[in-house]
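Appendix B, record 7
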Amino acid sequence: MDQTALDARFASPLWKGFGFAGAALTALLVAPVGAAWGENSADPLAAAALAGEIAHKQEMLALFPDPTASTQATPPVVPQLQIDEDPSGMIATFQPNGSIQTANNAFFQNLGSNGRTCFTCHEPQDGWTLSAQHVQARFEVDPNDPLFRLVDGATCPSDDVSTPDAKRAAYSLVIGKGLIRIGLPMQPTMEFQILDVTDPYGCNTNPITGLTGPKSGIVSVYRRPLPSANLAFLSTIMWDGREPDLFHQSVDATLGHAQANVAPTAAQQQQIVTFEGCATADNPVPCANTPTGAGVFTSQFFDANAGYLAAYGATGGPVTLASDAASFFIGINDPLGFNPTGAAFSPVIFDVYDAWANLTGHGDAVAARGAIARGQQVFNSAPINITGVGGLNDVLNQPGIAGFCGTCHDTPGAGDHSVKAPLNIGVANAGALSPPALDISRLPVFTLRCTSGPLVGTIFEVTDIGRAMISGKCADIGKVKGPLLRGLAARAPYFHNGSAATLHDVVEFYDQRFGIGFTAQEKDDLVSFLNAL
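Structure tokens (predicted):
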């Protein structure tokens, strides 16, 4: 759609009467409701983004109610150690404090109006998120499963779901890529405007569900739900960092994804967050300083080729990971020098499979263990000339940075970034800068122009505006956080937009994007290692 067409659409009388929810709902959304709710008040753009997101979901419920509703089924108990099959072997969940009775914790309870719980999108067999494989299976068993709700499970809340074929089309992105829709408001103070949108689903260009002008209305993007496990290592909440802490996030998820009429109580928030791994609202960062024994941890437990991942001296699995969490702190190994202890950065992020580097013997299992150990070595030591990364090269004013995988995935043992560091490595790019080896064909494309700030006049083509929808800054267009790397085998596809179907695609993207020059064996070894995390 070109600018003339957009201007004509925005001038249409259809726009009138379809703004955000009314003053009463807005007042509810910005009122203090439990621990840490007001922490976004220092950032008016972020606060407006969060309030607008929830108001949009509530409004969509009123305009497009689901024709059917069922309630999420949850197991009565999640045991202290739960083991589930995944495509690479087995993944395990470990709770240091012991098993949990789900009836006693709001994480597993229906607090909304559409039958969903937190468990709807965060299940142990998927590394406490969603895998496309299991979403497909759920749809075949029950197309009315609470995951399939118009508000964000569909490509647009206005989608037709009157027939089985229509329903399959409406939920095609969550079925095929495990993507949910995120609707965020454009704001007049942003440094950019939208010149054009190519949207195969029409959600962004529909005046009822989407944009009302170049700097107004709702932008819909499609993202993978992040895991709700291993949060003791967390430095940023949500792909775009829009949530200040897990208490706040529990409120927004309940009012938004579950379309609740009231926010969860302070006690319910505490139950959710305690299960996830935070003790109180007093932690200075999302979930740091987690007491030993708190939370839920997940990682690969058994590899179909290498066997048990804690055998022969290796330390795979979630039990060791849980013990590592007690020593985590923000900036623990940050390459930009934010480590409060002053310790130097080390690119050696993982030592899980050191003991497998020199195993003797023969057979397929020994060979597979050797491949995992070699892949760990590639991850820790392969040099990468980092170029063109927004949030890194531009911030440091260095066109090229001699780095490693751990330059961005720097948290020891977990692979997260240990400080807030939204980066644009090109995954959200479109048009002439489309990312190599990735599939973005089913995503909308936004053409943006910077109208103010240091990048005024610059044009961007992206499938996801990223952190810029929260900060309003052109420099943040396309930036997202990096995810924790544990439990990868269970949660395909990869990247925030599901554009990498396999870990081979992930490795191929990095190899082409940064010209690393991996050999075929190094690629295979690296994939073996990532599957064993």
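Remarks on this record: Residues 3-531 form one domain. The CA atoms of residues 504 and 527 lie 6 Å apart.
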